Amino acid sequence: MSEYFSIHPVNPQERLISQAADIIRSGGIVVYPTDSSYALGCRLDDKTALMRIQRIRQLDNKHHMTLMCRDLSEIATYAWVDNPAYRLLKSHTPGPYTFLLRATRAVPRRLQHPKRKTIGIRVPDCKIALALLNELNEPLMTTSMILPHQEYPFSDPEDIREAVENQVDLIIDGGFGGLEPTSIIDLSGEKPVVRRIGQGAVAAFE
């Protein structure tokens, strides 16, 4: 049975954010809100928690994992960012985008795309997610909260509770979430490539 925290979307309660971070540090899996949809997350170096998420989502090692980061400076620790990519990141973060970038050695190999050695990077425009990231002082390994039989991510935290409360350690209720995933922008090559059109506008990358 998972913990269930109702956290205010504008003024997140520090006590609950601190407790949530402790659960994650202890090897827990969290379902939490972002600026696009709800997401599953765990510590980036926690192999056991990652395997649990892969079982919930029924993912193989070809699935691009995403690191949810606090800001641009944190991105530079985990991904190679040249000047053109930096300008695009600066103008589109925080926001509902996932950027594919070449991973640095700080990213465990199991999180990288097995052939391209890339990693997804996000900076969310969500007060709960940012408060949690600041408390953790490190990125969250993240993937959308969507089950194999679903077309869209969960939007109602009570539905999430009913579906996965015995498979995760914490569910953060931050109100209703979105149904549309992030736009995915590949910045690992010479030019940006739009891999998925989602919530974020993509005209600047085309």
Structure keywords:
206 residues, 10-stranded mixed β-sheet, DHBP synthase, single chain, alpha/beta
Rg estimate, integer Å: 16 Å
Mean pLDDT: 93
Residue windows where pLDDT falls under 50 for at least 5 positions:
none
The biggest beta sheet reads: 10 strands, mixed
* SSE order, one letter for each helix or strand: EHEEHEHHEEHEHEEE
CATH homologous superfamily placement = DHBP synthase
Number of strands: 10
Set down the secondary structure blueprint.
Blueprint: E1 3-6, H1 14-25, E2 30-32, E3 39-43, H2 47-57, E4 66-68, H3 72-78, H4 83-92, E5 97-102, E6 118-122, H5 127-136, E7 140-144, H6 157-164, E8 170-173, E9 183-186, E10 193-196
Helix pairs in contact: 1-5
Task: Give a verbal description of the structure.
The model has no long low-confidence stretch (mean pLDDT 93). Helix 1 packs across helix 5. This protein is an alpha/beta fold. Helices cover 28% and strands 21% of the residues. It has one domain: DHBP synthase (Alpha-Beta Complex). The protein starts with a strand and ends in a 10-residue tail after the last strand. It contains 6 helices and 10 strands; from the N terminus they run E-H-E-E-H-E-H-H-E-E-H-E-H-E-E-E. A 10-stranded mixed beta sheet has the order 1-8-2-3-7-4-6-5-9-10, with helices on both faces.
Describe the structure concisely for a colleague.
With 206 residues, the chain is an alpha/beta fold. It has 6 helices and 10 strands.
